[in-house]
Design a protein that fits this description.
With 255 residues, this protein is an alpha/beta fold. It contains eight helices and seven strands.
């Protein structure tokens, strides 16, 4: 594969693209949500825990884990070698506490480089990039055996809409918000249709567009992803935060 994203939206193997993507991250806003996720790891800050960061990218989530659990060790996984290079630089001060593995979530063999158990498995805006619901479910189930008793899996990610009506409502809300912002900031009066046309043009300019991936029986909705966690061997699973399509979900194993 030339890209870890089967829709072609992201080119994680390009040094230039990875640099551009990292530069576009709103660190302050993202940090609040990542901190919320880290706070859900059910261990004392002084515990010596082992954590796996799936699709860890340049290491933003791993850094928070290491800062909050100073005696922890982290295994940062990613598919992109440029991202792993960025992570090594970003986490250089924690060199004795971090190791790195490369694996492709599009195949069930991605766990081949993992050894031992983890007290926590975490992920941030990564797993949805495999796009296929069946593979998202597969990732959840494939990593579950590596989670120790008393441990957890926590994922801050995007979920699919629960149906066409919900997806339509979300698109409408997004256009309403965009139209209001244009009117307030640019003093331009647009109809909703004109706002939609401008938004579509912007997506084409960025290389975006509708996915051509085939539909699957179980879409990656919030309800289904929680079900997949329970089916994967977690005793309890729930959603701890939601805003639009973005959620923080978790599965926990009893001790």
């Amino acid at each position: 594969m030339t890209s870890a994203d089967p829709t072609g939206l992201h080119d994680w193997h390009s040094d230039a693209y990875v640099q551009e993507w990292i530069g576009g991250q709103t660190e302050a806003e993202r940090r609040v949500l990542l901190q919320r996720l880290v706070d859900l790891i059910p261990y004392d800050p002084d515990d010596e825990i082992r954590v796996l960061d799936i699709g860890g990218g340049y290491g933003a989530l791993s850094k928070l884990v290491l800062d909050n659990y100073p005696h922890s060790t982290v295994v940062l996984h990613d598919y992109s070698e440029p991202m792993l290079q960025e992570a090594r630089a970003h986490l250089a001060q924690y060199s004795d506490s971090v190791s790195y593995v490369r694996g492709d979530l599009m195949t069930s063999e991605w766990t081949g480089a993992l050894t031992g158990e983890f007290n926590a498995v975490v992920s941030s805006i990564a797993i949805h990039n495999v796009r296929y619901p069946g593979r998202i479910k597969g990732v959840y189930q494939e990593v579950a055996p590596f989670v120790a008793k008393g441990g957890c899996f926590l994922n801050f990610d995007q979920v699919a809409a629960a149906g066409d009506l919900i997806a339509g409502a979300e698109r409408h809300a997004g256009l309403m918000s965009r139209r209001r912002k244009i009117m307030e900031e640019e003093r331009r009066q647009l109809t909703l249709a004109e706002t939609a046309a401008e938004a579509a043009m912007g997506r084409r300019g960025r290389g975006g567009g509708a996915s051509t991936l085939p539909s699957e029986a179980e879409p990656a909705t919030l309800a289904n992803q929680l079900k997949w966690l329970r089916e994967g061997g977690y005793d309890q699973a729930d959603c701890f935060w939601r805003e639009g399509r973005r959620v923080i979900i978790g599965g926990y194993k009893s001790g």
